[in-house]
Structures are given as structure tokens and as C-alpha cells.
């Protein structure tokens, strides 16, 4: 499987090739695997670091055979296994779904803080450009709507979501302090709810939960009244945003919102999913989790103006693709609507 000889001592960038070398921490996850595919397609040599907490080896199927692809099992909380010469680093390593990041909250926090430091030190040693997958969660339960990058947020420091929210906020601090202190080129994306192919059926986030429940004919679990809102971005649009942010000629001096600005209530999402899956599932209500944000919608003016980026795929189209993916995965054989 591992054909490319990595140069563990560093010094030779893109060893054995004149390709740029990109390190993707969290590359076996939902977003990471799509990013790896895109980077290989764009001519990079790709090295994944992943502890497989929520990522899966089968997300990388097809890539394993690529001579310019290597996957190393490693937890970024620990010192890196080798001093790898890299040109670009993408830090996507962190469980993203509330049930997963709350399962071991201290490790989640360490992943954002110690993991970021380990990767930032690598970037410093090799003068590599480094990207951080930050999140709309840094706005907490926002009091400003929609959320521009200039909004500082409204976050509980000690609730069950804090390990993720405050970990990601600390990581943003680290990225910009490394930039100011050592002159590292950092790119920080604040990602809003993104969905699509390669989400795990047991991921626990709302889009995968609803589609899986609908395909299995189970009750659709709306937490609270369902009047809370989210803005859902399809994965292909988001990955294009990552690449544009990373390749922008100069580093924006602040984090950049990436997400779809079209806002839906969770109840509207449930109804759309039932429609797309032709499901007979019933909607049932469950208690709203603690600190669940009431509304969320990105202001993407900066990305529009400076990256010439905005999402192209509507929720209806993205749901059709995602439903087809889960339908094949679960073998549910229900008639699913085309996009
Ligand atoms: P995911 O859970 O599918 O992927 C996370 C990946 O990181 C997995 O492969 C997991 O095994 C790996 N990982 C976790 N902790 C690690 C550690 N300590 N060391 C090494 N690998 C580790 O989630 P995703 O949706 O693909 O999210 C990717 C990144 O994007 C995360 O950092 C997440 O916080 C961020 N993000 C995602 C969304 C979204 O809607 N998908 C929104 C905001 C931010
Ligand atoms: N949600 C829901 N049912 C589910 C899973 C989630 O109603 O089965 C709600 C959740 O309470 C939140 C929204 O959907 O209001 C988005 O949840 P998700 O975990 O996908 O993302 P986040 O809360 O991190 O934005």
C-alpha cells in the first residue's frame, strides 16, 4: 500500500517527486477523505495522520492504491511520529459530532490544543502553510444573526459542548499567535454545518440521523420544538472553499466563515428528508440538548468577495446525493427521489 518513501528527517520537500506534499490530520474522516481526494486530484502527494476515532479506513478506499498517498495511524495529541518535510498542513483532526466529542471531552480539548501545537511546530520547522478546521461553534448560541467573522460569540465555558467550542476557540488563538510570533502562514476556516457522502450512519449529527431513520422507517428524532435553525452546506462546496482559502495569494488576517447561508428550521429539514426518502417515518420530539444553539447562519461576505466562493448546491440537491449514498450503504432499497 505504501509506495512513496517518506523522508522522515525532513529537508527534502516532496521526497521522490516534485509534487507539493500535503499533510492531512483527520484525513480518514468525513471531510478529510474528500479533501484528500481533491488534493491527489490537484497533484499533491498526500500524507494522512489519523487515530481512527471517528474516521474509517474504508473512507480512503481507492486512495490507498495511489503511489502518492500514505496513511499513518497516529493521535495528534502525542508527539508526531516523524519530522516530516511538508509544504502544506490541513488540521481536520477532531471529532465533530456532539455525541462523539462529548464521549471523551478531555481528549477532545487536548486534540484541539495539544494537537494544534504539534502541527504548528511542524509548520514552523518546515515553513509550511497551515490550515485549521475551526467551526461555527465558536459563536456558541449567537446573539448576532447572521454571524459575521467579527462577532466574538456567546459560549458557555463549562457546559457539555465546551470541550469542543472552547477547544476550537483556543486553537484559533494558537494559530494566530504562531502567525504573529513566528510569521507562519495560517488559514483558519470557520465551518458551518456540512453534510454529504461518507458521513457515518451512527455519526449522530442531524442530517445523517434523519436520513438513516427515514430509510429504516424509524421515528425521526427532532430535539426540542424543531424551531432552532441551521444552515447546511454540501461537502463538495465546502472542499472548494478550503482549497480557495488555502490558495488565496495572501493570508486573511482573521478566520473566514465557510458555509451555506440558506437557513432552515430542523423541522423543515425533517419534512424534506421524509419527502426525499418517501418514508413513512413519524416525527417525534426528544429533549433539546444543553446549550443547543437556537439559530445559526453564516455571513459569507468575506469569502464571496475575497475567495470568489459561495455554495452552489442547494439543500434539496445535496439531500438527494446524500440519501442515495445512505440508501446504497444500508441496502434499504427504498425508491429515492432524483436530485
Ligand atoms: P469526522 O469525525 O468525520 O472527522 C474527524 C477525523 O479526525 C476522524 O477521521 C477522526 O478519526 C480524526 N481524529 C479525531 N481526533 C483525532 C486525534 N486526536 N488525532 C488524530 N486524528 C483524530 O468529522 P468531520 O465532519 O469530517 O470534521 C472534520 C473537521 O472539521 C473537524 O475538525 C471538525 O471540528 C471540523 N468541522 C466540521 C463541521 C461539519 O459540519 N462537518 C463543522 C465545523 C467544523
Ligand atoms: N438534532 C435533532 N435530532 C437529531 C440530531 C440533532 O433535532 O437526531 C438537532 C440538534 O439538537 C441541533 C441541530 O439538530 O439543534 C443540529 O445538530 P447537529 O448535532 O447536527 O449539529 P450542531 O448542533 O453541532 O450544529
TrEMBL record:
The keyword NAD applies. CDD domains: UGD_SDR_e. InterPro entries: Epimerase_deHydtase (IPR001509), NAD(P)-bd_dom_sf (IPR036291), UXS-like (IPR044516). Coiled coil: none annotated. Its cofactor is NAD(+). Pfam families: Epimerase. Residues 22-259 form the NAD-dependent epimerase/dehydratase domain. Gene3D superfamilies: NAD(P)-binding Rossmann-like Domain. Keywords: Decarboxylase, Lyase, NAD. The keyword Thylakoid does not apply. It comes from the Bacteria. PANTHER family: UDP-GLUCURONIC ACID DECARBOXYLASE 1 (PTHR43078:SF6), UDP-GLUCURONIC ACID DECARBOXYLASE-RELATED (PTHR43078). This is SDR family oxidoreductase.
Amino acid at each position: 500500500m505504501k509506495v512513496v518513501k517518506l523522508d522522515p528527517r525532513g529537508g527534502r520537500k516532496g521526497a521522490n517527486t516534485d509534487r507539493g506534499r500535503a499533510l492531512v490530520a483527520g484525513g480518514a474522516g468525513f471531510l478529510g477523505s474528500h479533501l484528500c481526494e481533491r488534493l491527489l486530484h490537484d497533484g499533491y502527494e498526500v500524507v494522512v495522520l489519523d487515530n481512527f476515532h471517528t474516521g474509517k479506513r474504508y473512507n480512503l478506499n481507492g486512495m490507498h492504491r495511489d503511489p502518492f498517498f500514505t496513511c499513518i495511524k497516529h493521535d495528534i495529541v502525542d508527539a508526531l511520529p516523524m519530522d516530516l518535510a511538508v509544504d502544506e498542513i490541513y488540521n481536520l483532526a477532531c471529532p465533530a459530532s456532539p455525541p462523539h466529542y462529548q464521549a471523551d471531552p478531555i481528549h477532545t480539548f487536548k486534540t484541539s490544543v495539544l494537537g494544534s501545537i504539534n502541527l504548528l511546530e511542524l509548520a514552523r520547522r518546515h515553513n509550511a502553510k497551515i490550515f485549521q478546521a475551526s467551526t461555527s461553534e465558536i459563536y456558541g448560541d449567537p446573539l448576532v444573526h447572521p454571524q459575521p467573522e467579527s462577532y466574538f460569540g456567546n459560549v458557555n465555558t463549562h457546559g457539555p459542548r465546551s470541550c469542543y467550542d472552547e477547544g476550537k476557540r483556543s486553537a484559533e488563538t494558537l494559530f494566530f499567535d504562531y502567525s504573529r510570533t513566528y510569521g507562519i502562514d495560517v488559514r483558519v476556516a470557520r465551518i458551518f454545518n456540512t453534510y454529504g457522502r461518507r458521513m457515518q450512519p451512527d455519526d449522530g449529527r442531524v442530517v445523517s440521523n434523519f436520513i438513516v431513520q427515514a430509510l429504516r422507517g424509524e421515528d425521526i428524532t427532532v430535539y426540542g420544538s424543531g424551531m432552532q435553525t441551521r444552515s447546511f452546506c454540501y461537502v463538495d462546496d465546502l472542499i472548494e472553499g478550503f482549497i480557495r482559502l488555502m490558495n488565496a495569494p495572501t493570508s486573511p488576517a482573521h478566520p473566514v466563515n465557510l458555509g451555506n447561508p440558506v437557513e432552515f428550521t430542523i423541522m423543515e429539514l425533517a419534512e424534506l428528508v421524509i419527502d426525499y426518502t418517501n418514508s413513512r417515518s413519524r416525527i417525534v420530539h426528544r429533549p433539546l440538548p444543553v446549550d443547543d444553539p437556537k439559530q445559526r447562519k453564516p455571513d459569507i461576505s468575506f469569502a464571496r468577495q475575497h475567495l470568489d466562493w459561495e455554495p452552489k448546491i442547494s439543500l434539496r440537491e445535496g439531500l438527494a446525493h446524500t440519501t442515495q449514498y445512505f440508501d446504497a450503504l444500508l441496502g434499504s432499497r427504498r425508491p429515492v427521489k432524483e436530485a
